[in-house]
Specification:
Layout: H1 18-25
């Protein structure tokens, strides 16, 4: 679903479990993002 010409915003919430937290905390090394 896109909203290119629509006004407003979208918020997505999800439960953060241990597996997702590990993924978010993992090191990243890409052209656009280095962590």
């Amino acid at each position: 679903m896109t909203s290119i010409e629509m006004q407003g915003c979208s918020i997505t919430l999800l439960e953060l479990d241990d597996e997702l937290k590990k993924g978010l905390d993992a090191k990243a090394n890409t052209i656009a993002f280095r962590c």
